[in-house]
Amino acid sequence: MDAATNATAAFKLLTLNTHKGFNSFNRRFVLHELREAVRAESADVVFLQEVLGSHEAHAVRYPQWPQKSQYEFLADSVWQDFAYGRNAVYTEGHHGNALLSKFPIVRYENHDISIGTHEERGLLHCVLRVPHSEIDVHTVCVHLGLRETHRRQQVQHLCRLISQDIPANAPLFVAGDFNDWWLLANRRLQRCGLREAFVQHRGRLARSFPVRWPLFKLDRIYYRNARISRPRVLSARPWSRLSDHAALTAEVQL
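RE: above sequence
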Protein backbone atom coordinates (compact mmCIF):
# COMPACT_ATOMS: atom_id res chain seq x y z
CA MET A 1 0.00 0.00 0.00
CA ASP A 2 1.19 3.54 -0.73
CA ALA A 3 1.41 6.36 1.80
CA ALA A 4 -2.04 7.73 0.94
CA THR A 5 -3.63 4.32 1.44
CA ASN A 6 -1.84 3.88 4.77
CA ALA A 7 -3.20 7.23 5.94
CA THR A 8 -6.79 6.27 5.16
CA ALA A 9 -6.37 2.92 6.92
CA ALA A 10 -5.76 4.61 10.28
CA PHE A 11 -8.36 4.60 13.02
CA LYS A 12 -8.83 4.85 16.79
CA LEU A 13 -9.83 2.21 19.34
CA LEU A 14 -11.44 2.67 22.75
CA THR A 15 -12.22 0.02 25.37
CA LEU A 16 -14.28 0.42 28.54
CA ASN A 17 -16.07 -1.68 31.13
CA THR A 18 -19.28 0.37 31.29
CA HIS A 19 -20.34 -0.97 34.72
CA LYS A 20 -23.88 -1.35 33.28
CA GLY A 21 -24.26 2.42 32.94
CA PHE A 22 -23.59 3.28 36.59
CA ASN A 23 -20.69 5.01 38.31
CA SER A 24 -18.55 3.48 41.04
CA PHE A 25 -20.58 1.82 43.82
CA ASN A 26 -23.70 2.17 41.61
CA ARG A 27 -24.54 5.55 43.12
CA ARG A 28 -25.67 7.26 39.91
CA PHE A 29 -27.04 6.25 36.53
CA VAL A 30 -24.61 7.90 34.11
CA LEU A 31 -25.26 6.36 30.70
CA HIS A 32 -26.13 9.69 29.05
CA GLU A 33 -22.91 11.28 30.31
CA LEU A 34 -20.98 8.20 29.26
CA ARG A 35 -22.32 8.50 25.72
CA GLU A 36 -21.14 12.09 25.48
CA ALA A 37 -17.67 11.19 26.80
CA VAL A 38 -17.27 8.31 24.34
CA ARG A 39 -18.43 10.52 21.46
CA ALA A 40 -15.93 13.21 22.43
CA GLU A 41 -13.05 10.75 22.00
CA SER A 42 -14.02 10.20 18.33
CA ALA A 43 -13.08 6.53 18.41
CA ASP A 44 -13.89 4.50 15.31
CA VAL A 45 -14.15 1.14 17.08
CA VAL A 46 -15.40 0.85 20.67
CA PHE A 47 -15.07 -2.29 22.81
CA LEU A 48 -17.62 -2.43 25.64
CA GLN A 49 -17.90 -4.82 28.56
CA GLU A 50 -20.72 -5.17 31.11
CA VAL A 51 -23.18 -3.42 28.82
CA LEU A 52 -26.87 -4.11 29.41
CA GLY A 53 -29.07 -5.55 26.71
CA SER A 54 -32.14 -5.07 28.89
CA HIS A 55 -33.14 -4.65 32.54
CA GLU A 56 -36.84 -4.42 33.35
CA ALA A 57 -36.42 -3.20 36.94
CA HIS A 58 -34.00 -0.40 36.04
CA ALA A 59 -36.26 0.68 33.17
CA VAL A 60 -39.04 1.35 35.71
CA ARG A 61 -36.83 2.89 38.39
CA TYR A 62 -34.81 5.40 36.31
CA PRO A 63 -36.76 8.01 34.29
CA GLN A 64 -33.89 8.49 31.82
CA TRP A 65 -33.53 4.78 31.07
CA PRO A 66 -33.32 4.36 27.28
CA GLN A 67 -36.09 2.50 25.46
CA LYS A 68 -33.50 0.47 23.53
CA SER A 69 -30.48 -1.53 24.65
CA GLN A 70 -27.54 0.32 26.18
CA TYR A 71 -25.25 -0.57 23.27
CA GLU A 72 -27.79 0.75 20.73
CA PHE A 73 -28.20 3.91 22.83
CA LEU A 74 -24.44 4.42 22.94
CA ALA A 75 -24.04 3.73 19.21
CA ASP A 76 -26.92 6.09 18.28
CA SER A 77 -26.16 7.70 14.89
CA VAL A 78 -22.36 7.81 15.36
CA TRP A 79 -21.44 4.13 15.08
CA GLN A 80 -23.48 2.70 12.22
CA ASP A 81 -22.73 -0.94 13.01
CA PHE A 82 -22.76 -2.76 16.33
CA ALA A 83 -22.66 -6.32 17.63
CA TYR A 84 -23.68 -7.71 21.01
CA GLY A 85 -22.69 -10.91 22.77
CA ARG A 86 -25.13 -11.80 25.54
CA ASN A 87 -23.25 -13.46 28.40
CA ALA A 88 -25.22 -13.19 31.65
CA VAL A 89 -28.97 -13.78 31.72
CA TYR A 90 -31.14 -13.20 34.80
CA THR A 91 -34.75 -12.50 35.74
CA GLU A 92 -34.62 -8.75 35.02
CA GLY A 93 -32.62 -8.92 31.79
CA HIS A 94 -29.14 -9.64 30.46
CA HIS A 95 -25.72 -8.09 29.84
CA GLY A 96 -22.55 -8.88 27.93
CA ASN A 97 -19.94 -7.46 25.57
CA ALA A 98 -20.56 -5.18 22.61
CA LEU A 99 -18.62 -3.67 19.74
CA LEU A 100 -19.53 -0.33 18.14
CA SER A 101 -17.99 0.31 14.73
CA LYS A 102 -17.93 3.07 12.12
CA PHE A 103 -16.89 0.33 9.68
CA PRO A 104 -19.18 -2.46 8.43
CA ILE A 105 -19.24 -5.56 10.64
CA VAL A 106 -19.40 -8.33 8.06
CA ARG A 107 -19.86 -11.12 10.59
CA TYR A 108 -19.63 -11.78 14.31
CA GLU A 109 -19.88 -14.61 16.80
CA ASN A 110 -20.08 -14.70 20.58
CA HIS A 111 -18.05 -17.51 22.16
CA ASP A 112 -19.26 -18.74 25.54
CA ILE A 113 -16.22 -19.17 27.79
CA SER A 114 -18.12 -19.58 31.06
CA ILE A 115 -16.61 -22.10 33.45
CA GLY A 116 -19.37 -23.87 35.35
CA THR A 117 -22.27 -21.71 36.51
CA HIS A 118 -20.41 -19.25 38.73
CA GLU A 119 -19.81 -16.48 36.15
CA GLU A 120 -21.08 -16.08 32.60
CA ARG A 121 -18.31 -14.80 30.32
CA GLY A 122 -17.79 -14.46 26.59
CA LEU A 123 -15.51 -13.49 23.72
CA LEU A 124 -17.21 -11.37 21.06
CA HIS A 125 -15.36 -11.96 17.77
CA CYS A 126 -16.16 -9.49 14.98
CA VAL A 127 -14.81 -9.11 11.44
CA LEU A 128 -14.68 -5.53 10.12
CA ARG A 129 -14.47 -4.34 6.53
CA VAL A 130 -12.15 -1.34 6.88
CA PRO A 131 -12.02 0.86 3.75
CA HIS A 132 -8.72 0.83 1.82
CA SER A 133 -7.44 -2.13 3.83
CA GLU A 134 -6.30 -5.11 1.80
CA ILE A 135 -7.66 -7.60 4.33
CA ASP A 136 -10.51 -7.67 6.83
CA VAL A 137 -9.78 -6.63 10.42
CA HIS A 138 -10.60 -8.99 13.30
CA THR A 139 -11.55 -7.82 16.78
CA VAL A 140 -12.23 -9.75 19.98
CA CYS A 141 -13.97 -8.01 22.89
CA VAL A 142 -12.97 -9.75 26.12
CA HIS A 143 -14.28 -9.99 29.66
CA LEU A 144 -12.55 -12.71 31.66
CA GLY A 145 -13.57 -14.22 34.98
CA LEU A 146 -12.60 -13.23 38.50
CA ARG A 147 -11.07 -16.60 39.41
CA GLU A 148 -7.52 -17.38 38.29
CA THR A 149 -8.39 -21.00 37.51
CA HIS A 150 -11.18 -19.79 35.22
CA ARG A 151 -8.99 -17.21 33.49
CA ARG A 152 -6.38 -19.86 32.64
CA GLN A 153 -8.97 -21.86 30.72
CA GLN A 154 -10.50 -18.75 29.17
CA VAL A 155 -7.13 -17.56 27.87
CA GLN A 156 -6.57 -21.00 26.37
CA HIS A 157 -9.93 -20.68 24.62
CA LEU A 158 -8.91 -17.23 23.32
CA CYS A 159 -5.62 -18.55 21.99
CA ARG A 160 -7.45 -21.43 20.25
CA LEU A 161 -9.87 -18.96 18.70
CA ILE A 162 -6.96 -16.89 17.39
CA SER A 163 -5.06 -19.85 15.97
CA GLN A 164 -8.06 -21.64 14.44
CA ASP A 165 -10.46 -18.90 13.31
CA ILE A 166 -8.31 -15.85 12.50
CA PRO A 167 -5.95 -15.82 9.50
CA ALA A 168 -2.30 -15.51 10.54
CA ASN A 169 -1.82 -12.40 8.35
CA ALA A 170 -5.01 -10.59 9.41
CA PRO A 171 -4.89 -7.44 11.56
CA LEU A 172 -6.20 -8.40 14.99
CA PHE A 173 -7.18 -6.36 18.05
CA VAL A 174 -8.12 -7.99 21.37
CA ALA A 175 -9.30 -5.58 24.03
CA GLY A 176 -11.34 -5.44 27.20
CA ASP A 177 -11.39 -6.26 30.90
CA PHE A 178 -9.04 -9.20 31.56
CA ASN A 179 -9.38 -9.19 35.39
CA ASP A 180 -5.76 -10.31 35.32
CA TRP A 181 -4.71 -9.34 38.84
CA TRP A 182 -1.49 -11.38 38.83
CA LEU A 183 -0.50 -10.73 35.16
CA LEU A 184 -0.43 -14.43 34.29
CA ALA A 185 -2.84 -13.97 31.38
CA ASN A 186 -0.58 -11.28 29.94
CA ARG A 187 2.37 -13.67 29.71
CA ARG A 188 0.23 -16.37 28.10
CA LEU A 189 -1.21 -13.97 25.51
CA GLN A 190 2.27 -12.82 24.56
CA ARG A 191 3.13 -16.46 23.90
CA CYS A 192 0.07 -16.56 21.58
CA GLY A 193 1.74 -13.91 19.42
CA LEU A 194 -0.02 -10.80 20.74
CA ARG A 195 1.58 -7.52 21.74
CA GLU A 196 0.09 -5.16 24.30
CA ALA A 197 -0.14 -1.48 23.36
CA PHE A 198 1.02 0.04 26.66
CA VAL A 199 3.81 -2.49 27.13
CA GLN A 200 5.15 -1.73 23.65
CA HIS A 201 5.06 2.04 24.10
CA ARG A 202 5.58 2.57 27.84
CA GLY A 203 7.20 -0.65 28.97
CA ARG A 204 4.37 -1.59 31.33
CA LEU A 205 0.65 -2.34 31.39
CA ALA A 206 -1.77 0.51 32.10
CA ARG A 207 -3.26 0.96 35.57
CA SER A 208 -7.02 1.16 35.05
CA PHE A 209 -8.81 0.07 38.23
CA PRO A 210 -10.29 1.52 40.36
CA VAL A 211 -10.77 4.54 38.15
CA ARG A 212 -10.25 7.23 40.83
CA TRP A 213 -7.05 5.70 42.18
CA PRO A 214 -5.86 3.35 39.42
CA LEU A 215 -3.67 0.63 40.92
CA PHE A 216 -4.50 -2.57 39.06
CA LYS A 217 -3.71 -3.41 35.44
CA LEU A 218 -6.96 -5.07 34.45
CA ASP A 219 -7.81 -3.49 31.08
CA ARG A 220 -5.69 -4.13 27.98
CA ILE A 221 -5.36 -3.55 24.24
CA TYR A 222 -3.55 -6.39 22.45
CA TYR A 223 -2.80 -6.45 18.74
CA ARG A 224 -1.16 -8.30 15.86
CA ASN A 225 -0.25 -7.35 12.27
CA ALA A 226 -0.75 -3.62 12.86
CA ARG A 227 0.97 -0.55 14.27
CA ILE A 228 -0.35 1.16 17.39
CA SER A 229 0.53 4.60 18.71
CA ARG A 230 -0.50 7.04 21.44
CA PRO A 231 -2.04 4.62 23.97
CA ARG A 232 -3.82 6.63 26.68
CA VAL A 233 -5.56 5.96 29.98
CA LEU A 234 -8.74 8.03 30.47
CA SER A 235 -9.12 8.28 34.23
CA ALA A 236 -9.54 12.03 34.86
CA ARG A 237 -12.91 13.77 34.74
CA PRO A 238 -15.38 13.10 33.26
CA TRP A 239 -14.21 9.46 33.08
CA SER A 240 -13.61 9.16 36.81
CA ARG A 241 -17.35 9.72 37.31
CA LEU A 242 -18.61 7.30 34.65
CA SER A 243 -17.50 3.77 35.63
CA ASP A 244 -15.36 1.89 38.10
CA HIS A 245 -12.79 1.24 35.33
CA ALA A 246 -10.76 3.76 33.32
CA ALA A 247 -11.18 3.72 29.57
CA LEU A 248 -8.18 2.99 27.32
CA THR A 249 -7.59 4.35 23.81
CA ALA A 250 -4.99 3.86 21.10
CA GLU A 251 -4.49 4.88 17.49
CA VAL A 252 -4.04 2.21 14.85
CA GLN A 253 -2.44 2.07 11.44
CA LEU A 254 -2.75 -0.94 9.16
